[in-house]
Design brief:
Two copies of one chain form a homodimer. The radius of gyration of chain A is 23 Å and the shape is globular. Chain A is mainly β. Helices cover 8% and strands 32% of the residues of chain A. In chain A, the strands form five sheets. The first copy, chain A, has a six-stranded mixed beta sheet with strand order 14-15-22-21-17-18, with no helix packed on it.
């Protein structure tokens, strides 16, 4: 390592064919985490199960630490608010499904080297906070406003440049009601946990996670398009580094399945018993309501409609689906796909982009239904009594 | 994949030299997670930050689901208790540092292929529950008891054998007071979260995580040594597969440091400013009190004593340490090591074992203190004002 700031950053790169996950990717994977897929059964994800991605460090903000939010730039009345001031505004609670824009990246080939998600970077919570448009109305946004820039307290280096985490929304999104953007102070009825932005974060229903700035400390209205790193360099859909690329915004439709049966510890392959197996999971889209969920038990060759749970009145949250499949002995590949009211659906082959963003490849779940002579309990440690079969371990 | 249960499991193996982390290891790393090291600043880890390792699936236990704990085997009065029955026993609260027995595995060479932890599989919580010895006294353990076997509701396959998660403690440990083993129903003043064993788990202060059986549903006292998979196959210190090996039990001493300064997103390399830098962290041992914490700023060539925080009256929990280091421009490797009252300390070169258990290699933290012309803010996006420097991004 040299002695200049630029020396801490390597250029963005793609993994070589068959290159395993590197130490740098693993260092991200051991600290950030996805939703264990069996916990899709929870309609609202407990905080420790909801996915987490932190770019730099989680800021340390002990309880009762004063916190100041400033609102400035192209506004007529700049604001400086503490949390008590903020709580004087009306608050609402919204159920929102959040998904990381990089979900599915580690399944791409070639693999963009970054946080190596498979399919699990998702979660749903009840967020409580103040509608952003009320605060911006109080500040009186000038007519020439273009973007509203949000700055978090998380601080680090990207490509040799020291920076705070910072993202912008177009002014019409920031002041609009569809979605109703929140300055959230609560998650699932409790104060925000440290890793979810304590004490204040942005929630932008329907948008990928990069928009939901955590540890929010400043809002600045600008009259030219914001070109910060996380807006113009990262989080763009591009085929090569020279492209300007398209901005990553709303969440593409996706369905996920609770992997049925039980797993092998290391291979994670699922085992089911022969007979009816209830397949269930959740489906969502940040663009339009999910109108169809289909399940395949033959790796995508044929599909059947799953039952969607009735509309629960939470337009920005996932909805449950369910389908009964009859397992026969053999190896199977289950799959599920969602289609939304805009006609968008999920691909069987993932279109590639250089950053590995906005993937929604159909989930494939390999399942073994053992031949009856193997699945009748003879190989089980324990059986009906808890410790009768130790000697059959190995 | 074949169609027999044994086909879902691959044999235990070691990674080839320079073999990257595989898809199987990644699938574990995206669902289990460590403690983000900057959150070592929290004396008690919030539940979503505390490390989690689940062998199979997290059982789904909705609130108010009936839960039964059975106590049987070599006891005179077999018990069948629900949670209300259990709460009629006296409860205590103990602060306990838990560490995964596989912490540090991914740093070994050759690397045992399993959950690929670096150094972060640790956390500290306040656990509330009933002392196990009170329950066993009620059940009246027979004089010929040898082991007490604990069975969780988590169910899966290991090496082709279907099983519940199951571990045993020697009867003298299970009925003793040093440590006071708990049947825990609460974590940090709240019910257990799903991933930490809701509604009931074992807590064995001072022991590695594999002993703390989650989702506990049965306790069986046996008169011969328990030889289940997690006792006799996994969690043994052995050099080759034929060794009987030594059981993994109590936690070896370890100190960890809050990585100072701020990180590069991808390399995770730390950047600090020149001048005094407070280094801080936590140190623990499951065997004896930590009596010394030393810090090195030259990769372990020379060491200085850190200040330990006074004894806080929590003998099974980590204790804080602190040391002020004066950073000079250049690249540095910081390190920290703990020594306990039994004289055990941390190695600079990790002794190897086939399962990758009970590692406590000295943590090394590469840090860059940039030359002043690079660290004076000229490269910072933002600087004092939040959005004044967008054009310097790229």
């Amino acid at each position: 390592m040299g002695h200049r700031l630029a020396d801490v950053s390597a250029p963005a790169r793609l993994a070589a064919p068959d290159e395993g996950i590197g130490r740098d990717e693993l260092a991200l994977a051991t600290r950030n985490h996805g939703l264990p897929l069996e916990t899709l059964r929870h309609e609202v994800s407990p905080p420790g199960l909801h996915y987490v991605l932190t770019h730099y460090d989680i800021p340390y903000v002990p309880p009762d630490t004063p916190w100041t939010l400033t609102v400035g730039g192209r506004v007529r009345r700049p604001l400086r608010l503490d949390l008590t001031d903020l709580r004087a505004f009306p608050q609402i609670t919204t159920r929102v499904t959040l998904e990381c824009a990089g979900n599915g990246r580690a399944l791409l080939s070639p693999r963009p080297v970054s946080q190596p998600w498979l399919v699990e970077a998702v979660g749903t919570a009840e967020w409580t906070g103040v509608p952003l448009r009320l605060l911006l109305a109080e500040a009186a946004v000038e007519a020439d406003a273009v973007d509203v820039v949000f700055t978090g307290a998380d601080h680090g280096v990207e490509r040799g440049v020291e920076q705070d985490y910072r993202r912008a929304l177009p002014v019409d999104v920031a002041t609009g009601t569809d979605p109703e953007v929140l300055l959230a102070v609560g998650m699932n009825g409790a104060p925000l946990p440290p890793q979810h932005g304590h004490p204040l974060r942005l929630i932008v229903p329907g948008w990928y996670g990069m928009a939901h700035v955590k540890w929010l400390r400043d809002i600045t209205v600008v009259d030219t398009p914001f070109t910060g790193f996380q807006q113009s360099v990262a989080y763009r859909l591009r085929q090569d580094p020279q492209d300007a690329g398209e901005a990553v915004t709303r969440i593409a439709p996706r369905a996920l399945m609770v992997p049925p049966g039980f797993p092998d510890f290391m291979s994670r392959t699922r085992v089911v018993r022969p007979g009816p197996v209830v397949l269930e999971g959740r489906a969502w889209s940040g663009r339009a309501p999910v109108t169809r969920v289909e399940v395949s038990a033959d790796g995508g060759a044929t599909w059947r409609d799953a039952d969607q749970e009735p509309d629960t009145g939470h337009p920005w949250a996932w909805r449950g689906w369910r389908h009964t499949w009859t397992a026969a002995p053999g190896a199977h590949v289950l799959a599920v796909r969602a289609t939304d009211a805009g006609g968008a659906t999920q691909p069987m082959e993932q279109p590639w982009n250089r950053g590995g963003f906005a993937n929604n490849l159909v989930q494939r779940v390999p399942v073994l239904c053992p031949e009856p002579e193997e699945g009748d309990g003879r190989d089980r440690e324990g059986g009906d009594g808890p410790v009768e079969a130790e000697s059959r371990d190995h």
